[in-house]
Amino acid sequence: MSAMPVGKRLARKFGGMGGDNGRYFSTTKKGEIHEMKEELNSLDKGKKKDAVKKVIAAMTVGKDVSSLFPDVVNCMQTENLELKKLVYLYLINYAKSQPDLAIMAVNTFVKDSQDPNPLIRALAVRTMGCIRVDKITEYLCDPLQKCLKDEDPYVRKTAAVCVAKLFDISPEIVEDRGFLDMLRDLIADSNPMVVANAVAALSEIQENTSKNVFQIGAHTLYKLLAALNECTEWGQVFILDALAKYNAKDARDAESIVERVAPRLQHANCAVVLSGVKVILKQMDVMNNPEMNKALCKKMGPPLVTLLSAEPEIQYVALRNINLIIQKRPTILANDIKVFFCKYNDPIYVKMEKLEIMIRLASERNIDQVLLEFKEYATEVDVDFVRKAVRAIGRCAIALERSAEACINVLLELIQTKVNYVVQEAICVIKDIFRRYPNQYETIIATLCENLDTLDEPEAKAAMIWIIGEYAERIDNADELLETFLETFLEESTMVQLQLLTATVKLFLKRPTEGPQQKIQTVLNQATQEIDNPDLRDRAYVYWRLLSTDPEAAKDVVLAEKPTIADDSHLLDSNMLEELLANIGTLASVYHKPPEAFVSRTRIAVTRAADLEGAEEEEEEEVESSADVPSSSAAAAPVAQVTDLMGNLMDDPLPAPVDPFAPA
Known about the structure:
The chain is mainly alpha-helical. It has helices at residues 6-15, 33-40, 45-60, 69-74, 81-94, 99-102, 106-112, 118-130, 134-148, 153-169, 171-176, 179-186, 192-207, 218-228, 233-243, 251-261, 270-284, 290-306, 312-328, 348-361, 367-377, 383-399, 404-416, 420-436, 445-449, 458-470, 478-486, 494-510, 514-529, 534-549, 551-558, 574-581, 587-591, 600-628, 632-651.
């Protein structure tokens, strides 16, 4: 639904009614309520209609015209459809604040729901559904039941949506009066739009209840597939979203669904395309035909690419969805990476998403093209985009082993530009590459050390210090390089201090000479006596104890072989990915969060269910634990032992700083 303000929508609506309707919004008269009251009670139909327009215009610009409620309600008794719509609009706005007066309109609603004109019948039911007043809800049931069986499909489709609104107000009435069964019957309706609205209503009701309200069986499935080709685009979205929740019985059933849904991929509406992709992805998991799956992946690529020729906002939504899709089926767009190359006039949010997808689609086959693009992006003016482009080069190096050297060469070229933030980001990235490929690319360390003086960001400093400490035995002046950082040890951020502490210990263990010994004494003293951060202080104590008791053990701990890293930090958990793929085309697929994380109504339902399950589990655990625990004294023994151990550790006086490094 459009996010256009109500005032503008109404102004546009007035403009569409012909004549000089804009004048109703430009009045500056004061004390006009009495004048409007007289006009509303006029016998002249033209004056009465103009008066209602004035009332709606005043209501739209924020004036309180609730005092005219009885007079406006009296205008409902008219054959003029335009006037009736305006009165109904007024009622929807003020019925909640005037519930007692709103009852006056009930008889007219009931009468209008039996009008020979189907537009008036539908309008009456729709308006009664929108007026969220309990007293009126009671009178809505009989007209709604009749309209659900109306001979005109327009009335039936309007009534179907009204059932969902009524369920939101009073679920008990909907269940007791058999509205759910009537909705299910509408799925077999001859009119496809009635089917689509019935599906939409049942789906919405299902989201707000824990009961099994809407279940697609074999008979229902083929009714939905038959209606799919004939209903409007939004009707198709409702039906496709319902089909996406259907679990196919076997591969043949899945293939049948895919065959009927595949033509929707060529639709002009983006929502229809994404819903079609969602259904096909779900059924591909059931199909065990690799050739057919390959053909479907090939068929889904072009429609997704076409979405990127739309407005930037739609591009962004499409890119967020594509990001999820290629995590599950990367072959869909494996040959279309050029489509995601950034254009000079793309908004930054589109560029960022394209960059993420390019990283996912990068392979040994296209890495040269991708690196040229990334190198170009690293010269852009937007600093955040440049940083992400440099990071992207590093992520490609980590993911593609054969192309790591090419990635490093590009990073070295970027370092030569001497642009401060580019250099610092490149150093952070190279640290990760060293973690991924230890002892392979150390020759570039000299180039990195040339830029030591330009580092001013904590992350870049920490990365450079890590490199110096890790390769201290290969860097001739490693102690001098660390000294430049140690001079400002107390002023540095915690991230840098932690790396400095560890790097200094590594330097001492690799070169146990007098220079590193003095440095480690100074750092340990400062970290344990002059710094309040518990993480840093505790790490310093651990290193101190290790060095003083068993230097060999210290080597085994500090210089231990590190596990190689992988670029999986940006990948979603498989269960989360499946849940988000089931919500393609919704806000969940844009936020990359499950619906319950940001939809309050869903969150409450999920929380209640979780609390109920948690309470049951706690009761079971209490029963089991009461049978297993032998006695309180036996259970307390391990706790006492742990306490003693901690006491011994903290009670022992620490050795003097010089002792750990005295010759044996």
